[in-house]
Amino acid sequence: MDLFRFFFAIILITAFVMSGAFRRRARRTGAIPRSREGGAMLAMRLVFALPFFLAMAAYIINPRWMDWSALALPEAARWAGVAIGLAVLPVLYWVLRSIGRNISETVLTKSDHALVTHGPYRWVRHPLYTAATIAFLALGLIAANAFILALAALIFVGVALWIVPKEETELEAKFGRAYEDYRMRTGAFLPRLVVTGKPPAARAGPSLPA
User: Fold this and answer.
1) Which structural domain range is residue 95 located in?
2) Distances from the Cα of 83 to the Cαs of 4, 67, 88, in angstroms?
3) How far apart are CA 140 and CA 161, in angstroms?
């Protein structure tokens, strides 16, 4: 196994193990069946996520299977991908630990869902999507693969234009003015440079779904 493929596998597997561990823990306090999201959401996940993860698995098993979409990237760009991918892992852990039992695998909110404003959620409403996108783009650089990079970008666009608005509608319905205030002082994926409105009083508790 060459070094790039080795680091690709390490970053991807570590991210999945961390995410899986926190999601299993969250399911113990209640889980929402994906069927409640409706057929359109399930279809979107299958159309984009399934080919994406199959492509990454194919690269780990046999990189030649992905030669059809290989990019002629300089080694420096691929090593930059390694550095970015490794650096985002502790950020991903921080996000998952902050969201805790509130992590959801759907756009819906749990009955005991609570609004989190600590950790990265103090500045960003959906840091899990940010961390995941950075990790996926880094993996695309490491693999020097156009298909992986393109799907990572398309998935982020789908998340930003479709999934996040649905999630935020659910969150606003559940938390009302508290969520409106929170949204005014935070950015969706990156910290807001200019805060609008008056920040609400500090709240303790877990977080929004990512």
Assistant:
1) 3-27+38-104+113-184
2) 11, 23, 9
3) 22
